[in-house]
Specification:
Helix content is 65%, strand content 0%. Helix 3 runs antiparallel to helix 8 (144-152). By secondary structure, it is an all-alpha fold.
Length: 382
């Protein structure tokens, strides 16, 4: 599939961006980052459109893209676990250098070369064609300098807050990928920790960025941002265990949620479940595991709502709409699908029509409507 890469003739290390341009986020740089954001995250791109302030939108966009670079390294099965860990740790070092203004184009190019040299049997310019993952993910890795140059132009306080959170994310990811097989989550404690590294850290920097733009109680935000992020990530964990296993060789569902199954047994049953006509009856442990993950997300819904509603309904910067969009999408996904759907080819998924209704509603929901989430979802999706 042909994918727009943002720069004419850009491939791998042969880019039109020279070191003298490093640090300039304007023009073609900005066009590329806008386009690739939409390709690597449809959910958060929908949310991003809700933000009205240009500087804030750029900071949120670029911060997410920096996270996506790390996540692409974590997800790929074309790099050995110990190499992934080293690449993530060195990426954290790059972020740290950019926080202080000490890194430049050559440093980033060296890291991209290390990524390329770590790939098993494929050139980095062709990796998108060899994996099921969208080419745009690897376009972003190849052009990490573009996202990092835009990040380096952030306001210093924003740059520091975002950088600290992303460093925590990448160093946390490194702990989970350093092994001979894909990620295996053992229990609730590990699930919480993993979800914090990959999502809670995002909640941390969003709180930092958004609290500068609104009159809010930061203590309330800090108390609830983790649950907001945990809810979103746990529903993501439940959404498509088949793809996680096939594409990443990862099982994010804790073994203690599997009602007696080991991870090895879970792997075997997944392949059988995809072919089952009566999954709930044939594989009750699999369905129960998904139900347990969804229940662990639902437990955090009240706190997640407190986080969102700390921002004013209809705020001029669109922050409330940005935060309500993924929360409504997550809650609707859990509400409008059956747990056994997680083991179909599509996974837990709502349709475009429902997404459109959520986009229309987000940002304009009175606080009182959040008190009955079931009714709110019914009215939103009717």
């Amino acid at each position: 599939m042909a994918v727009y890469l943002g720069f004419q003739g850009m491939e791998g290390f042969r880019t039109s961006v020279g070191s003298e341009d490093y640090g300039n986020p304007d023009g073609e740089f900005d066009d590329y980052l806008d386009t690739v954001h939409g390709k690597v995250s449809r959910t958060f791109d929908l949310a991003l459109r809700q933000l009205e302030d240009d500087e804030l939108r750029r900071e949120v966009r670029d911060s997410y893209l920096l996270c996506r670079i790390a996540d692409t390294i974590e997800d790929t099965d074309l790099i050995e676990g110990d190499r992934k860990a080293k690449l993530l740790e060195s990426y954290s070092g790059l972020i740290d250098d950019h926080r202080s203004g000490e890194a430049g184009y050559r440093d980033v190019a060296g890291w991209v070369r290390d990524v390329s040299d770590s790939l098993k049997g494929v050139d980095i310019n062709e990796v998108g064609e060899r994996e099921e993952a969208d080419e745009s993910y690897w376009s972003l890795v190849r052009n990490a300098h573009t996202a990092l140059s835009s990040y380096q132009a952030f306001d210093p306080s924003a740059r520091d807050d975002v950088g600290e959170s992303i460093q925590e994310m990448t160093e946390g990811m490194a702990q989970y990928v350093d092994g001979d097989r894909g990620i295996r989550i053992r229990d609730e404690e590990e699930l919480f920790e993993y979800c914090h590294y990959v999502a809670g850290t995002v909640g941390d920097f969003l709180t930092d960025l958004f609290s500068r733009e609104a009159e809010v109680d930061e203590e309330v935000l800090r108390e609830n941002s983790e649950d907001y992020a945990q809810l979103l990530q746990r529903i993501n964990v439940a959404r498509d265990p088949v793809a996680d296993l096939r594409e990443e060789e990862a099982i994010f569902t804790p073994e203690t949620y599997m009602e007696g199954l080991t991870h090895g047994e879970f792997t075997g049953e997944i392949e059988e479940a995809v072919e089952s006509d009566n999954l709930r009856e044939d594989h009750p442990e699999l369905v129960g595991a998904v139900e347990n993950v969804l229940a662990s997300a639902e437990e955090r819904a009240d706190s997640a709502v407190k986080y969102v509603t700390e921002f004013e309904q209809g705020d001029p910067n669109g922050v409330r709409a940005y935060l309500e969009t993924p929360l409504l999408l997550a809650l609707a996904t859990a509400d409008q699908t059956e747990p056994e759907d997680a083991f179909t080819e599509e996974g837990l998924k709502i349709g475009r029509e429902e997404v459109g209704k959520i986009m229309h509603k987000a940002g304009n929901i009175p606080d009182s409507d959040w008190e009955d989430r079931e009714k709110l979802l019914e009215q939103t999706l009717e």
